[in-house]
Amino acid sequence: xxxxxxxxxxxxxxxxxxxxxxxxxxxxxxxxxxxxxxxxxxxxxxxxxxxxxxxxxxxxxxxxxxxxxxxxxxxxxxxxxxxxxxxxxxxxxxxxxxxxxxxxxxxxxxxxxxxxxxxxxxxxxxxxxxxxxxxxxxxxxxxxxxxxxxxxxxxxxxxxxxxxxxxxxxxxxxxxxxxxxxxxxxxxxxxxxxxxxxxxxxxxxxxxxxxxxxxxxxxxxxxxxxxxxxxxxxxxxxxxxxxxxxxxxxxxxxxxxxxxxxxxxxxxxxxxxxxxxxxxxxxxxxxxxxxxxxxxxxxxxxxxxxxxxxxxxxxxxxxxxxxxxxxxxx
Length: 330
Known about the structure:
Blueprint: E1 5-12, E2 17-19, H1 20-26, H2 38-43, E3 47-49, H3 57-71, E4 79-83, H4 94-102, E5 108-111, H5 117-131, E6 137-144, H6 156-162, E7 170-178, E8 183-192, E9 200-201, E10 219-220, H7 222-244, E11 253-256, H8 263-271, H9 282-285, H10 292-302, E12 311-318, E13 322-329
Parallel strand pairs: 4-5, 4-6, 11-12
Antiparallel strand pairs: 1-7, 1-8, 2-3, 6-7, 8-13, 9-10, 12-13
Helix pairs in contact: 3-4, 7-8
């Protein structure tokens, strides 16, 4: 059975660039705020993109998707998947709104798996294509995370869970998955540790805390998350590379989710893969949730860090907690 391929990648970034100083100045805590320069010191962030108030998640995703459609005018889109932590609303699927904005007539669906939403959609799209159900699947992502940042923590303990949110940024991405031509997705594996779901949350919007306004903000225990990734990640990657028959030294490019500028160096050290092979976009864009991996992948393509014939590893890290590895013959 021939494998699904990545045929095109596109991104969209809001024009408004916001610096750490502006974010730090917004934080209101009893007795003051947070110190100037603390975000770069803790996370390595410098800037991020923020969409205007009137811009919807579907607008951001549509801008990225439109680039794919325009670059592949002779391709008929058989399925549209919207994959992001963000959404326009609970009902209906945001993909319906994006379908209208893009002028498509195909079936649509949403896939939500926190920061692994986009890579999960790649796995689903691949299965659809390899089964013969669809020929061309357009995945779009729009993250408007600037709306879930809590600038008014209750106290210093609450601040510890809110402060990772001060690195969040807005971004859009899109990818065309097809067959024959493009870059072959040769291996995919996902694993989850659901017992740790409370470590990173936006609890509002579902039945758990539907009417609790204070729950509509991002909270995370970054240290606890890192310990899980550090403990489980190397074992999981070893397992995947063994199953795929790949060696670390053969991997030319690694694109992973990033929750700080140090993420790539930490993974490099834990996995035994040279840091120069990683794509680090965090200082410029911050944590853009599910848009992070396609955003970094697009940058690798544009900057020539990824060339035809290279071996590419996509590594997803997400709340939940979940990990993923996808190997691509570029």
